[in-house]
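Key idea: predict the complex, not the pieces.
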Amino acid sequence: MSVDVSEVELVRGCLAGEVAYQRLFVERFEGMIFGLCLRMLSRRHDAEDVSQEVFLRAFRNLHRWDGERPLRPWLLTIAANRCRTHLEERGRRPMPTDLQADWLPERTRTDSRDDAEEIQRAFATLRLEYQQCFVLFYQQELSVEEVAQILDCPEGTVKTWLHRARKEMAEYLRKRGLDPQQELNDHSLDLNSDMN
Amino acid sequence: MTCFDFENRLQESFDLRQPELPDELCAHISHCPACREMQERFQQLHVAVADWQVQPPTAELADAVLRRLRTEHNLVISTSRSTSDGQRSPSHRHSPLTGWMALLASALALVIAVGIGWRVSSNVSFAKRQTSSQTQIANIPVKRLEPVSDPTPTGDRQLDVLVHDARDAYAALASQAWQQVSATNVLLPPTDTPNLFGGEGSTDGVSESLSRPLAPLGKELREAVDSWLQQVFNSQDSST
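Result:
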């Protein structure tokens, strides 16, 4: 089956019960859905579970999808809602210690993997709404308008949340000893080496 | 441009994903070290986020989703089959005759319920009437037997006195009994008992003919018994 199947055709095939179309549907969007879930939930196992639930819900409700609107925001809306529900359920349980950044010792810069961990920790300190905004804007590369549609809130609210998320994360990184000038220099060095 | 304006404009440029910093912002940070540091921190954050890659999901994600989807689908099919089989079974089939029978049974139950209700309401009004009659009976003066004052009765005279007293006592008892029976029994209309419940001819909204269906028969019976008693008294009078 061709990978260039249109969204309408893909949905039609899924509704007809065609397993090949269903597999293509999952494979086309699994990276996007799993990425959002992993960022929101911080745990790979939870992210995979919730991703499965998102796809199951999507298949159950595919007949409600408006064919004139893009499929991606619709799926991200389901994923965002499922992540929120999962986090609310998890909120009744104690948070794992690896996400409690207050405990962590002073950061010693080693490699980019540590940077990713620092970003993840900074992200984990944000409020749920800020997290959703941040992931949808930066990772899914959606516009403010699209994020507002997915989260069902005004664009001004999304802008405010994004602003606060940036400030809080930048402040967290500053406290953790991430030197912005050194970071930028390293980044420009990496770019130069890639170009050469 | 103030630092407050700078921050707002900087956020706008981030929201619009502008690749380069606008000139007016560059002019501001050239002479404002605080804003320059802030801009560098945001820039550093963007660089870090850009490197913040997400590892792909495991290869089994699609298989797991499809497996769960198939299980769910089979469950739905088996449920719908069992439901439709149940609808086709003769034990669950409803014929028109069954519907009519059900309707008839409902109507019959309704009639029985109305009848029971009417009967209960009749009994309630009868009980009220009976209670008031008991009060009236208690107020009826009872004719008491006087002791024989004549200390020396002799022969026939003594007998006459005894028979006379017995007749009076019998008449008083009979009158009292009739009063009681006529007041309490539905068979005999209370000729001299006023209707204490509602207006004329009605008792708590129930007409006299309904609350005392055998009243006409009771009236004839009473007259017959009265005439018979009168004959008995007359014959006794004539005999004495």
